[in-house]
Write a structure and sequence with these properties.
Blueprint: E1 9-13, H1 17-29, E2 36-41, E3 45-47, H2 52-57, E4 66-68, H3 69-72, E5 77-87, E6 92-97, E7 103-106, E8 109-112, E9 116-118, H4 126-129, E10 130-131, H5 136-155, H6 159-165, E11 167-171, H7 175-192, E12 204-208, H8 219-232, E13 236-238, E14 243-245, E15 250-253, E16 258-260, E17 263-266, E18 270-272, E19 289-290, E20 296-298, E21 304-310, E22 315-316, H9 331-349, E23 363-367, E24 373-377, E25 380-383, H10 385-398, H11 402-418, H12 433-438
Parallel strand pairs: 1-2, 1-8, 2-5, 8-21, 10-17, 11-12, 11-17, 12-13, 19-22
Antiparallel strand pairs: 3-4, 5-6, 6-7, 9-18, 14-15, 15-16, 20-21, 23-24, 24-25
Protein name: NADH dehydrogenase
Family: Belongs to the NADH dehydrogenase family.
InterPro entries: FAD/NAD-bd_sf (IPR036188), FAD/NAD-binding_dom (IPR023753), NDH-2 (IPR045024)
Length: 449
Amino acid sequence: MPGTSSAPRILVVGGGYVGLYTTLQLLKRLQKGEATVTVVEPRAYMTYQPFLPEAAAGSIDPRNVVVPLRRTLKGAEVVVGEVVSVDHAARTARVQPKHGEEYDLAYDVIVMAPGSVARTLPIPGVAERAIGFKTVEEAVFLRDKLLRALDQAEASKDEDFRRRVLTFTFVGGGYAGIEALAELEDLARYVTKSLRTVRQSDVRFVLVEALDRILPEVGPEMGRYAVEELRTRGIEVNLKTTLQSCEGGVVKLSDGQEFESDTIVWTAGVKSHPVLEQTDLPLDERKRLRVGADLRVTTEDGSVVDGAWGAGDACAVPDLTNPGAFCAPNAQHAVREAKQLGDNLVAVLRGGQPTPYRHAYVGSVASLGLHKGVAQVYGVKLKGYPAWLMHRVYHLSRVPTTSRKVGVLLDWTQAAIFRREIVSLSAQSTPFAEFERAAGVKQITASRS
């Protein structure tokens, strides 16, 4: 292995679930001087995505949804930048830092954990009009946009304008889409109680799902219950329906519906990170990194690629509990894969043998808004308040670091006592506007830094 004259250099690409937990496990297991660990991640924090819907709804402070990497990964070097290509034959990764020119970063062992990105389709208008729901920035933006839309509609007598800004369209019936939709509808329902001219019935939420069900992870029965729950609240659930176009904010569906919508949220699946195609590592037909059950990168014939590991959404990890299948791209698998990867990597560095990753899927929980949810865990089906409570307890136990657990618990306590926060901070996108007006600047500049 290159660089064996000194401590092996381990490079972790990505600071999400796999990147964070793999690094934590390495730091826990490695002895001082046994290896160095470098993490390259575009953001200086890891986002706990299951809490994004509650951050959007004002139940959790957005800062408690993210985990600072440098403070959490003491002992590792954290580089805020993006790996844009990997030449594993030369053991170098090309890094684009936040500021400055690209450079090559040498390593001896690489852990590929770049995660996934939104899987978009070439639908007219999607790239220009839609927004995803994978980052805390997107969650905060949607929250502020909803609150701003309610304020604008309250002050306007233009019915066409009110109808457009009060229509929220969600494409995709998986966890991200359903939980975001349900939490934001809950927020709108709460806010309209204090408005004079905007009623809850004026706010329109539309779900578009290509399949005949939503939340497939919780099973058919709980999926049907979720549909009934959403429809009872006035949410329009369109199953076996696809988005045809949204150019100019005009939504056109496959069933012939056509309406204006100022807010279009795209949560119709994910795909492996495109950086994988800029490497010389073996990929499968879906552009996922090929890995074995022990999480070492393998070629198509099963040969191990020395010094390369991978796990999480970007990898095709064999599911040993379901022969022929692969582990689902979710947090439950990612966290467990990461810990196994860390243990295996240390074992191989010390001349030992890696252990195959095996985990039977426990089940799933999903929130449908405050005090509402669905769950199927170990075959037990729950709905309503018990499922919602299980959702909160489970994710509170899984969010990294004690400080974030305490922060989330305090947020929930405050929201229970004083109700949820309904102040929009949309002005933060143009922080110089007030000063520029005072200075007599007519053309407001929104791009100063």
